Amino acid sequence: MTLSASVVGVETLVPRSIHEFKGMSARLDGFYRMTNVKHVLAPGAHYNCEIVGHKVLSQDITERKATTKVQTKAKPQQS
Asked: Domain coordinates of the chain in residue numbers?
């Protein structure tokens, strides 16, 4: 299954990354591997991403953490 969409801009959206989509429908919800990502930023407009992804059907991938989880910009602590 292929997902093609325009979403609010997220800088972590890159090709070959895996992201979880929820709230569409039981059939469409799930993990998708991005194949094409275009970041669109125009003067006076919102930052958007045009994406194309393929639904991941393997259980191996769905057990991994999705890459779109909230990430902080905090510096890692050095020991």
From this structure: 2-62
